Amino acid sequence: MSSEKLKNVKTEVLSNNYYTLNKLTFDYKLKNGNWVTQMRECYDRGDGAGILLCNKEKGTVILTKQFRMPTFLNDNKDGMLVEICAGMLDKDNPEACIIRETEEEVGYRLKEVKKVFEAYSSPGVMTEKMHFFIGEYTDAMKVNEGGGLESEHEDIEVLEIPFTEAVRMLNNGEIYDTRTIVLLQYAIIHKLL
Ligand SMILES: Nc1nc2c(ncn2[C@@H]2O[C@H](COP(=O)(O)OP(=O)(O)O[C@H]3O[C@H](CO)[C@@H](O)[C@H](O)[C@@H]3O)[C@@H](O)[C@H]2O)c(=O)[nH]1
Ligand SMILES: [Mg+2]
């Protein structure tokens, strides 16, 4: 970690339970040349990967629906969220991660995926970088019902819906997860379906 605008970086671990919340104190050089001491809390839970699964022949996509406690705490009535299939890297590379997550969460075994971009999820507070993919699936690739890992108490509903329905949900505000919005918009822009 180095930057000409940064010195005296100190890290204090505030919480190290499931993931890690650090308090960073550092001197930062402003545009006017003055140095100021700043403090930022940074949540580190590693990086993630997400995928929009498309079936061009059927004109369908696969999304998931699951309970997300942080959204329940902030305005999402029942806490249920429609999302792309996604997961934490857990030491895998992004491609291996998203192929594993696709089989665990929605039950399809992919051979290849296409990386389309990577982006910071919430750069003011989280270290997380997300790797975004498009994957083509067919009925023949189905190997189980999906649903997520019982050992982690994942309880994921698999939604296979027409792309036109996903676009309708995007346009009328029924889809309000950023990762899902950006991949659906990618599919619209590049006329994937
Ligand atoms: N006990 C416990 N379990 C946890 C905790 N946080 C997460 N888990 C478990 O760890 C699992 C991680 O599942 P993944 O599929 O690997 O991750 P994800 O939560 O779907 O991650 C995706 O969504 C996140 C957005 O909320 C993204 O941040 C991430 O990059 C990725 O896209 C969760 O389902 C949950 O069971 C926690 O604080 N305590
Ligand atoms: Mg997941």
- Fraction of residues in H or I helices: 10-25%
Overall geometry: elongated
The end-to-end span amounts to 42 Å
Biggest sheet statistics: 7 strands, mixed
CATH architecture of the largest domain: Alpha-Beta Complex
- Total beta-strand segments: 10
Question: Strand content of the residues, in percent?
Answer: 35-45%
Number of distinct helices: 4
Rg, Å, rounded = 19 Å
Q: Look up the CATH topology of the largest domain.
A: Nucleoside Triphosphate Pyrophosphohydrolase
Compute the number of structural domains.
2
CATH superfamily of the largest domain: Nucleoside Triphosphate Pyrophosphohydrolase
Show unreliable segments: none
Family: Belongs to the Nudix hydrolase family. NudK subfamily.
Subunit structure: Homodimer.
Keywords: Hydrolase
Pfam family, one: NUDIX
Fold blueprint:
Blueprint: E1 6-16, E2 20-29, E3 35-44, E4 48-55, E5 60-67, H1 69-72, E6 80-83, E7 85-88, H2 94-106, E8 114-120, E9 129-136, E10 157-162, H3 163-171, H4 178-189
Parallel strand pairs: 4-9
Antiparallel strand pairs: 1-2, 2-3, 4-5, 4-7, 5-6, 5-10, 8-9
Bound molecules: guanosine-5'-diphosphate-alpha-D-mannose and magnesium ion (MG).
Can you walk me through this structure?
By secondary structure, the protein is an alpha+beta fold. It is built from four helices and ten strands; from the N terminus they run βββββαββαβββαα. The strands form two sheets. Strands 4, 5, 6, 7, 8, 9 and 10 form a seven-stranded mixed sheet that branches. Strands 1-2-3 form a three-stranded antiparallel sheet, with no helix packed on it. A hairpin with a 4-residue loop joins strand 4 (48-55) and strand 5. The longest helix is centred in the middle third of the chain and has 13 residues, at 94-106. The chain is elongated, with a radius of gyration of 19 Å. The N and C termini lie far apart (42 Å). The model has no long low-confidence stretch (mean pLDDT 97). Residues 86-87, 101, 105 line the site of magnesium ion.
